[in-house]
Amino acid sequence: MSGRKQFDVGAALDQAMRVFWQRGYAEASLDALGSATGLGRGSLYGAFGSKDTLFRQCLDRYASIYGAQYEQALTAHSGDPVRAVEAFFDVVLSRIADPSVPVGCLIAQSAAQSPTLKEENSTHVRGLLDRQRQRVRTALADSSADTRTLDELAAFVVAVNQSLAVLSRAGASDAELRSVARLASATVADTLARAASADVAQG
Predict the structure, then answer these.
(1) Which class in CATH covers the domain with range 59-202?
(2) Is the pLDDT of residue 1 over 50?
(3) 35-85 pLDDT, tens digit each
């Protein structure tokens, strides 16, 4: 049929996503993207508009894939925010340990490169981090802690998640990463327990 795309857009996005994930935005050349997707430069521009547009679509695809897993983990333990955070870290660590995908996290890597990204891309990355933080914040809402404490804990959990990705790219072992996640979960539990005790004392 005339005008019909002769390639799988989803598969092309997955391959491009891996290039950005492995190399970062700056080092993901059009030649590398074309080689990974099987598309020439003209076809890449025709399908996605520009490297920046392709990058944002890959960020969204990554966020959709893993965001759904985060959402499922965080909502599977209603009323138990500590277990929800533990389940969240389990998903993160499973992704890091998966040999079929690049090491680290595309969003964490892109956030680290934000100063070199175009403003629109940098803002997009920040928005994805904010979405992740809001997911965690929602899972913490069942506790009796005050709003400020819950906001700080949500930011802390996301910061640890990003740190796990960076450490994994630096060669940290699974045991080391799990130790960090375990201590982070313990910090969340201790903070919420103190908040509950204070609430009882005031009541």
Answers:
(1) mainly alpha
(2) no
(3) 999 888 888 888 888 999 999 999 999 999 999 999 999 999 989 999 999
Comparing CA positions, the residue from 163, 133, 164 lying closest to residue 151 is: 133
C-alpha–C-alpha distance, residues 122 and 83, integer Å:
32
d(CA 113, CA 124): 13
Residue 149 clears pLDDT 90, i.e. is over it: yes
CA distance 140 to 41: 46
Handedness of CA 24, 133, 172, 101 (dihedral sign): negative
- Would you list the domain boundaries of the chain? 59-202
Q: What is each CA distance from 169 to 14, 50, 164, 197, in whole angstroms?
A: 20, 28, 9, 39
Q: What does 111-146 look like in DSSP terms, one character per residue?
A: HHTGGGS-HHHHHHHHHHHHHHHHHHHHHHTTSS--
**pTM, entire model:** 0.89
The DSSP symbol for 92 reads H
What's the token pair of residue 167?
A: 């450490």
Residues 49 and 55 sit within 8 Å (Cβ to Cβ): no
